[in-house]
Automatic annotation (TrEMBL):
Gene from which the chain derives: LOC116194493
Domain GH16 residue range list: 25-218
Gene Ontology CC terms: apoplast
GO MF annotation: an example: hydrolase activity, hydrolyzing O-glycosyl compounds
Cited CDD domains: GH16_XET
Source taxon at top rank: Eukaryota
Protein name: Xyloglucan endotransglucosylase/hydrolase
Main function: Catalyzes xyloglucan endohydrolysis (XEH) and/or endotransglycosylation (XET). Cleaves and religates xyloglucan polymers, an essential constituent of the primary cell wall, and thereby participates in cell wall construction of growing tissues.
Active site residues per record: 104, 108
Residues of the signal peptide: none
Compartment annotation: Secreted, Cell wall; Secreted, Extracellular space, Apoplast
Amino acid sequence: MAILSKSLELMTKTLLIIMGMLLAVHATNFFNEFDITWGGNRAKILNSGEVLTLSLDSSSGSGFQSKNMYMFGRIGMQLKLVPGNSAGTVTSYYLKSDGSTWDEIDFEFLGNVTGEPYVVHTNVYTQGKGDREQQFYLWFDPTKDFHTYSVLWNPQTVIFYVDDVPIREFKNMKPKGVAFPMDQPMRLFSSIYNADQWATRGGLIKTDWSFSPFTASYRNFNAGSACVLSPNRRSSSCSSSTAWLRDGLHPKEVKKMKGVQKRFRIYDYCVDGKRFPSGLPPECGAL
Ligand SMILES: *[C@@H]1O[C@H](CO)[C@@H](O)[C@H](O)[C@H]1NC(C)=O
């Protein structure tokens, strides 16, 4: 018995070490992948590049952006949002291209007073035009642990995921005359800022600066499935397996997404008739 459990223990340990090594190979380093763009030392890269934190205080927020640009990809990382009283703060996390007719795929996390739910605000801009908001509550407390927020963007579709659960899809509906992000590479951005004019209950609750600094944390950036335009190369190089370029949701995942939307979606522009008196946007017919 003792021998058996010893060898089991050894096996488990070996497995853990191997898994650790695999993770180490995959874990990307924040120093290599991102530039801090504003906020000075309110943005910090820690643990030799494993973790990044962004803070907001009464004089400034902070932000970072990816060094690389991406032309399609499955791109994501883990975030742990501002704990406690975060009302009035917004942590934004998005892909965006340059120029005045930009494309953008947005996650924004709207803080709340202690114990009340964060709102995940999403939007899709194509050719500089957004107005495609959907908002969700989460099925967990996003301030307790790290959770993965990612986007699959390929020529067919844009899918928003929370911990591998699809919450929203924006399909390519070019044939219906809806612009789709097809030809402008995007960079990943994130920032934390004060938005107490509008963020929490429509601006009703103000940021309480006695709780500052407000800090969000990031780790495990993953753009392993993406086509990358590095700053010194204008040509794009894709990861060896590009199956994700054709990926979409399987029927099971569509079902899962619809379940999440039914239970956790609190706003959908596609059913906001009041906002679009002359008719809902053309993409709203599908799905
Ligand atoms: C904050 O909590 C209130 C009350 O539960 C809720 O109505 C609101 O959606 C929450 N989130 C934000 C960002 O206001």
